[in-house]
């Protein structure tokens, strides 16, 4: 009766069931909801739902953070293409100390076309002593491991891991050779420093350092064989524009011998290389009327300076070395043979656009949520099926939860304890 009174009271005040539900405005808004929600009466709460939610949020944040970090650091790409540009000549940058006086040495370059360049005229030769360069003699033998090179002075900075930004930073350093230390008063020179840049034809060639009277310029006075000593320290050997801070395979290498007749041979495969952080601007660079910027400083000056800020034009090379004593019928010395590859390697560091980053973040987060939802549904279904299987295998129970006892019907179905 009380309930009927309450209902009658609702009607007397002009109220009904709709007044205690959602408002009409809210119902109108829900009618236009693109993602309609399930009513709470049809949902079932679980103890593991919160754990799954926290786990999915943590995974989404972690994956989104990795995407942001990858976008911030950029992506390095390596592409090969046919080198464009005229490129008639090639600049060679050379800095070496040989343990023989300069008057005992001949330096020459001969290319595959037969042209011969007396490099001694293009390069500067300074008499010095081997002891004066001891601070630079902490070089490594060619083929030394990365750990052995890093143990040297300045090794970690020169031989550590480098990216495109490191090459761009190194290219902005000094662009001249170190000065040769003056000879101490009254000390005779026992070594020769050969340094400078020279231009040769951009074809295969050979760079020779021999004793006078042997090899090229055999018309020179004959040098006694016991004065031969081709122990040397290569401080710089690069091709193209001169960047002293860029590390090349033969930079800071030391080779020594105890034999007067000893032949050092280096075989180089040179590949024009470009490091850039603005690949789009590099694609607009025209080579039709200009020399290739990788050929040398002259070719680099022919192009707009705006490319020099974000791009480094240089040449990389791989080197193989052979060293062995020779007999007196052979020519001892230092022989560097180089071959120019017709391809160009472009190493570009690029960043995705902000819309692309947003799309990747949405894909990652939505993928985690969808996959997590499926996994949660499957685990809940598996738990339900497992619980249902347990209920089916359990024997039926009594009213108060005790297992029913089997009855004995041998006496006509009467229970003696019950008195039937």
From TrEMBL:
Record's bilayer topology term: Multi-pass membrane protein
Cited InterPro entries: Erv, Erv_C, Erv_N
UniProt domain Endoplasmic reticulum vesicle transporter C-terminal: residue ranges: 190-373
Gene Ontology biological process terms, A to Z: endoplasmic reticulum to Golgi vesicle-mediated transport; retrograde vesicle-mediated transport, Golgi to endoplasmic reticulum
Domain Endoplasmic reticulum vesicle transporter N-terminal: 29-116
Protein origin, superkingdom: Eukaryota
Gene Ontology, cellular component aspect: COPII-coated ER to Golgi transport vesicle; endoplasmic reticulum membrane; endoplasmic reticulum-Golgi intermediate compartment membrane; Golgi membrane
Transmembrane region(s): 357-376
Keywords in alphabetical order: Endoplasmic reticulum, ER-Golgi transport, Golgi apparatus, Membrane, Transmembrane, Transmembrane helix, Transport
Principal subcellular localization: endoplasmic reticulum
Pfam families recorded: COPIIcoated_ERV, ERGIC_N
Compartment(s) where it occurs, according to its Swiss-Prot or TrEMBL record: Endoplasmic reticulum membrane; Endoplasmic reticulum-Golgi intermediate compartment membrane; Golgi apparatus membrane; Membrane
Function: Plays a role in transport between endoplasmic reticulum and Golgi.
Family note: Belongs to the ERGIC family.
PANTHER family (UniProt xref): ENDOPLASMIC RETICULUM-GOLGI INTERMEDIATE COMPARTMENT PROTEIN (PTHR10984), ER-DERIVED VESICLES PROTEIN ERV41 (PTHR10984:SF81)
Protein name per UniProt: Endoplasmic reticulum-Golgi intermediate compartment protein
